[in-house]
């Protein structure tokens, strides 16, 4: 009798636990897809052409998983964390991220860091155009026109510290969605504390004290050196200012801006 009650209690506990997680079905879908990828990786590579291939396959012993080398920071442009989680678990949306950080600081890890999320879209940074394949995407719950909470930023800094250490991500490679897609995106918004991140080793900041800009200095060429896509000069300048001069939205480069760009270009 005691055993039956214990078994019943255990079964009810499991049922309640499952019913309380509204993402149970999408979690199953995640596991199914990961298993499919694992099955594909276990396969011996198929011959390209039997007439050209050696009779026996020889597997190298020197390999590893591809590690991300960039972190791209976004704001969700939605009104709640739940809305974002739902968006990222609907197949029809075709968008995702590795992490979502809610206003209360809760971090949702939605995708293994070694897997390719769909967060960057059409984008460019330096010569890199397939940024999804080499980056981790982090979404902060924010509608796009409000400050970020202290809890969010504290959780973000904690997460970035771990990601940088685990993946040996260069300091320069912590950037925003607007940096890599200046014609399409403005996230994270003007309230995002890029200087604070730089002070903690995630991205660079400038110091224009005693900076003297050479007479031959080419600001647009230097923006390209930093990483910006300068084919649309106005978009590139706006994206640069959204990151480094957030109180200035004028899409033009003045003398003070040249000092900032010159100093930064020596770091990137």
Question: Could you walk me through the main structural features you see in this protein, from its secondary elements to its overall organization?
Answer:
- With 268 residues, the protein is of the alpha/beta class.
- It has two domains: 65-205, Peptidoglycan recognition protein-like (Lysozyme-like, 3-Layer(aba) Sandwich), CATH 3.40.80; 206-268, no CATH class.
- 39% of the residues lie in helices and 8% in strands.
- It contains nine helices and five strands; from the N terminus they run ααβαβββαβααααα.
- It has a five-stranded mixed sheet, sandwiched between helices.
- The radius of gyration is 23 Å and the shape is globular.
Radius of gyration: 23 Å
Q: How many structural domains?
A: 2
Q: What is the average of the pLDDT values?
A: 91
Q: Give the termini distance in whole angstroms.
A: 71 Å
| Unreliable spans | none
Kindly provide the name of the CATH class of the largest domain.
Alpha Beta
**Oligomeric composition of the shown chains:** single chain
Number of strands: 5
CATH topology of the largest domain: Lysozyme-like
Shape: globular
* Helix content class: 25-40%
Order of helices and strands: HHEHEEEHEHHHHH
